[in-house]
Amino acid sequence: MERLPTVFFGHGTPMIAMWENDTTRAWRDLVESNPRPRAILCVSAHWVTRGIAVTGQAAPPTIHDFGGFPQAMHDYVYPARGDAWLAGRVADLLAPDPVVPSSAWGYDHGCWTVLMKALPNADVPLVQLSLDARRTPAQHFELGRRLRPLRDAGVLIMGSGNIVHNLGGVIRRDGVQPHAYAANFSRAIHAAILADKPQVAIDFHKLGVDAARSVPDPDHFWPLLYVLGARHDDDVVDLATNFIQYGSIDMTTVTLRAA
Question: Which structural domains are found in the chain, ordered by start?
Answer without folding.
Answer: 6-258 (3.40.830.10)
